[in-house]
Amino acid sequence: MNGQMQKYKDSLSKTPGPILLKDMPSVSIDYRGLVKYAKAKGVEPGSLSKEEKAKFCTNN
């Protein structure tokens, strides 16, 4: 086995398993409102601050 394959197998062994849907937090995001808000500010949605993005998220 060459070095790349060994690194790949080591990486796979350290990778956690999938996250189950029941373990995910229940959150709703108003994507349309978020994009509209970012567009009005003249920026991309990804460049908004966490506080600005949080305005469009609600916990269920």
Tell me briefly what this model is.
The chain has 60 residues and is mostly helical.
Q: What are the secondary-structure elements, in order, as H or E?
A: HEHHE
Strand order of the largest sheet: 1-2
* CA(first)-CA(last) distance: 49 Å
> Which ranges are low-confidence, i.e. pLDDT below 50, for 5 or more consecutive residues?
none
Discrete helix count? 3
Shape annotation: elongated
What does this structure look like?
The chain has 60 residues and is mainly α. It has three helices and two strands, in the order αβααβ. It has a two-stranded antiparallel sheet. The chain is elongated and about 55 Å long.
State the main characteristics:
60 residues; mainly alpha; two-stranded antiparallel sheet; 3 helices; 47% helix; 10% strand
Write the layout of secondary structure elements.
Layout: H1 3-14, E1 27-29, H2 31-41, H3 50-54, E2 57-59
Antiparallel strand pairs: 1-2
